[in-house]
Design goal:
This protein is of the alpha/beta class. Helix content is about 50%, strand content about 15%. The N and C termini lie far apart (about 55 Å). The model has no long low-confidence stretch (mean pLDDT about 95). Bound molecules: NADPH dihydro-nicotinamide-adenine-dinucleotide phosphate (NDP) and magnesium ion.
């Protein structure tokens, strides 16, 4: 990396101890951001180190015991510690008015990210969104809130960061299709027989991205791509049936837009989430040398293939949940979170994940008629209970 530009943007990073959070702190350090506030669930040790390194004034742990531990670890510092889920929301509110308006980077994993996204927008902060679950659960509500507050939702997910850039090549009415690329994960090319006995440790060996456990398993099942279809619908206002998926093993082309004249615009870079993080936070500016230069000659060739929706049923299941509408995507996500946890612990198999998700969706049919935030959160809880009950048998 050569010349690097400095910025003085204040940022609040939620999920700072995770894969995206750590990379965001790396971007913040390289480019001189003010890291105003940090939050995580229970990793008090890592969070305390971050508070020290970045002289952070506000921090939250949603696990109350971990919050107490954190208080002890940083008692010599001038930092305000918040505890619990409500505490994290209070922290966003307080930190957002303590100086120039910060960008909130939401890199919490799972449905737990929804309320912080809404709280960030309510507090008047631009939202850099890694937590795709916010849009899977309540895309309509989150985007309406952003519109009401006249604030941007800035995509951090690499595919959506790519689409956002590609879409600038034409008018929205001229878009024929969005083409989401998928690495295919560690199990690309395997059939049902080979997949059925694959354990979580095999799935955790992702070929191109190093991510948290949940999203890594979701990449192996292709559920992640299903979530990303919904994410794209809400971010860009393109109907679900115009969003295609293409497997691209090298993760160099991050996504594409096909326009009505059949011209296809692609965005490429080395696979490095720090680009997407910086692009979202700095929008509409581009920083110098955020990541390594792409050397296409050494990449050699780029391959593309259709996804195998028979061996990987999660993609179809996610489209089905979206078409059902209402709180059904929240049911899909919650059941998937429970099933993925079970898969990680060896309590269910590869196809156990989609089996539990389908059974939960079937049991909670009425979710499709529920559109309110409270209703969505209600079905999130119900789906967790239902999914857990299938694991007991
Ligand atoms: P990780 O599992 O690595 O990190 C999750 C982070 O969220 C941790 O800081 C964790 O804290 C925190 N967290 C978890 N639950 C809660 C909660 N209830 N309240 C507060 N904080 C919580 O995940 P990733 O960084 O991989 O992913 C984060 C999000 O970004 C996900 O939505 C994912 O889909 C999305 N994303 C990730 C990409 C990647 O490359 N990793 C790419 C694109 C999107 P603690 O450590 O204390 O448990
Ligand atoms: Mg992605």
């Amino acid at each position: 990396m050569n010349k690097q530009s400095k910025s003085t943007r204040p940022v609040i990073i939620l999920g700072s101890t995770g894969s995206i959070g750590l990379q965001a702190l790396d971007v913040a350090e390289r480019h001189g951001y003010e890291v105003r506030a940090l939050a995580a669930r229970s990793n008090a040790n890592v969070l305390s180190g971050q508070i020290r390194s970045y002289r952070v004034r506000f921090a939250a742990m949603t696990d109350p015991e971990a919050a107490n531990e954190l208080r002890t670890l940083v008692r010599d510092l001038d930092v305000r510690i918040y505890s619990g889920t409500e505490g994290m929301l209070d922290m966003i509110r307080d930190a957002s008015v303590s100086g120039p308006v910060p960008t909130v980077l939401n890199a919490v994993s799972g449905a737990a990210g929804l309320r912080p996204s809404l709280c960030a927008l309510d507090s008047g902060c631009p939202l850099a969104l890694a937590n795709k679950e916010s849009l899977v659960l309540a895309g309509e509500i989150v985007m309406a809130k952003a519109k009401e507050k006249n604030l941007p939702v800035l995509p951090v997910d690499s595919e959506h960061c790519a689409l956002w850039q590609c879409l600038k090549a034409g008018r929205r009415s001229e878009v024929d299709a969005l083409i989401l690329t998928a690495s295919g994960g560690p199990f690309f090319g395997l059939d049902r027989d080979e997949l059925k006995n694959k354990a979580a440790r095999d799935a955790l060996a992702h070929p191109t991205w190093h991510m948290g456990a949940q999203i890594t398993i979701d990449s192996a099942t292709l559920m992640n791509k299903g979530f990303e279809i919904m994410e794209a619908v809400w971010l860009f206002g393109i109907p679900e049936d115009r969003i295609e998926v293409l497997v691209h093993r090298q993760s160099i082309v991050h996504s594409m837009v096909r326009f009505c004249d059949r011209s296809v615009i692609a965005q490429m870079s080395v696979p490095d989430m720090r680009f997407c993080i910086a692009h979202a936070i700095e929008y509409p500016k581009r920083l110098d040398a955020v990541i390594d230069e792409l050397d296409l000659a050494s990449v050699g060739s780029l391959d593309f293939a259709k996804p195998d929706t028979d061996s990987f049923p999660a993609l179809g299941l996610a489209r089905f949940a979206y078409r059902q509408g209402g709180a059904m995507p929240a049911v899909l996500n919650a059941a998937n979170e429970i099933a993925v946890d079970a898969y990680l612990e060896g309590r269910t198999g590869f196809y156990g994940i989609t089996d539990i998700v389908l059974r939960t969706m079937t049991r909670l049919q009425k979710a499709k008629d529920e559109h309110s935030l409270d209703g969505i959160l209600y079905y999130d809880t119900e789906a967790r209970k239902a999914a857990a009950s299938y694991l007991l048998r």
